[in-house]
Design brief:
Layout (H helix, E strand, L loop, with lengths): L9 E7 L2 H9 L4 E9 L8 H5 L6 E8 L6 H10 L8 E2 L2 E2 L5 E5 L2 H17 L9 E4 L4 E2 L7 H4 L4 H17 L6 H7 L2
Parallel strand pairs: 6-7
Antiparallel strand pairs: 1-3, 1-6, 2-3, 2-8, 4-5
Length: 192
């Protein structure tokens, strides 16, 4: 568990494939103070992006979200998690393949664990997806912040190919679904 969790703010950690996209989605939500791209769940201390990309370190690309529970709940963050990617594909999101792209929730306390397990079970029971959810639910371990050039990648590189053709359409769709939960500045751009 991270030590910079305060009484007013909480942490949540999610992996939905490429962290550039995950970070952009969570950054748009009102109540999210920060979303940091990084690596968690592996064996090697201080892994680099190049090492994680080999799939041999055991880490997942993920985002550590700092949020204000008085503005957005963990359940709402879980809803964003399950609706922003395909949680039924094992070690894959779109063209990204490997354990580093797995669907994963790293819980920071027992309440988060219970809420994540309940959400996964209810979605499976309801048949929300054509296939069973394979999302891993594991205790938070050491989170390693990704290299500086990965932080706010979409915001800094909107014209880059992956950003323009993969992240931008996904973010537009996400903003339509979560329009009531967007930061005020994001609501203005979502309505255009």
């Amino acid at each position: 568990m991270t030590t910079n969790q305060s009484a007013d703010l909480a942490k949540a950690t999610f992996g939905t494939g490429c962290f550039w996209c995950t970070e952009a989605l969570y950054e748009s939500l009102d109540g999210v103070i920060d979303a940091v791209s990084g690596y968690e769940g592996g064996q090697k201390p201080n892994p680099t992006y190049k090492e994680v990309c080999t799939g041999t370190t055991g880490h997942a690309e993920c985002v550590e979200v700092t949020y204000d529970p008085s503005k957005i709940t963990y359940q709402e963050l879980l809803e964003a998690f399950f609706r922003s990617h395909d949680p039924t594909t094992l070690n894959r999101q779109g063209a990204d393949v490997g354990t580093q792209y797995r669907s994963v929730i790293f819980y920071h306390n027992d309440e988060q664990k219970q809420l994540a397990e309940t959400a996964k079970a209810e979605l499976n029971k309801a048949g929300a997806y054509a296939n069973p959810i394979v999302t891993e639910i594991s205790p938070a371990t050491t989170f390693y912040e990704a290299e500086a050039y990965h932080q706010s990648y979409f915001a800094k590189n909107p014209e880059q190919g992956y950003c323009a053709f993969v992240i931008a359409p996904k973010l537009d769709k996400f903003k339509k679904v979560f329009k009531e939960k967007l930061k005020p500045a994001e609501k203005a751009t979502a309505s255009h």
